[in-house]
Amino acid sequence: MVKQHTRRDFIYNTSVAGLGLMGFGAFLQSCAEKGVVYSKDLAKVYIEGLKSIIGLIRERELPNIEKAAGLAVQSKLQGHNLYVVLNGGMLPGELKSGRPGNPGVFITTDVQKASREDFVLSNDPYIVHGFGERMVKVVGLTTPQVLNNQTPPGALKNMGTLRLEDVADTVIYCHVPATDGIIAVEGIEIPLFPASGIIQTMIFYTFVSDIMENLARHGVYYTAE
After folding, report:
1. Which residue of 40, 79, 88, 220 could cross-link 15, Cys pair, CB 3.0 to 4.6 Å?
2. Quick count: other Cβ atoms within 10 Å of Cβ 107?
3. Which long-range contacts (C-beta less than 8 Å, at least 24 apart) are formed by 44-47?
4. What is the per-residue pLDDT across 134-154, written as a single tens digit (0 to 9) for each?
């Protein structure tokens, strides 16, 4: 049983709860009181912001994705298991069994059963803490809510001290800003419209596609569930 930590509680609560109806109503009311001015073409600006982040990932993270995929393929070809556990940031339902289009490369349950030469992809350093001693191959995927080497100083206070880099063989950075929201709206103090869900999901399936391509070269094939 993994010990619960404040940072993990934060990730869980933000991923399953979001803003309640009453909280959202209060948020809208506060916006009205501040005289919020919405910029034009917010939809286009948001899309351009996502494209910019994707461009950074393509430029800087593809080597890490390919390296991590190589570790996963090696484990699979040797008869070991591939696990994934992603809390917060990931779009809900993407890892559920039977999700159309998901080839089912990863096991999404019982990650604590991972043993020697198995492979684990996770965005939570506390879940995979100690896996290295078991000789489990660990790849970390960052989110703005998880401490890592790109977290700005002073951010994520009270979220623990363990970084993804402390427990992972390779780290894939999502390049989403610490605010998660990527558009500044006049009259609102924090950027709106989060990017982590879309970006983390995109990275995950980019990773899966690279694994599948490399496995196919060795005669191992997956079909959509």
Report:
1. 88
2. 17
3. 45/183, 46/182, 46/183, 46/193
4. 999 999 999 999 999 999 888
User: Can you read off the two tokens belonging to residue 100?
Assistant: 């159309």
Q: pTM to 2 decimals?
A: 0.83
Higher pLDDT, 223 or 27: 223
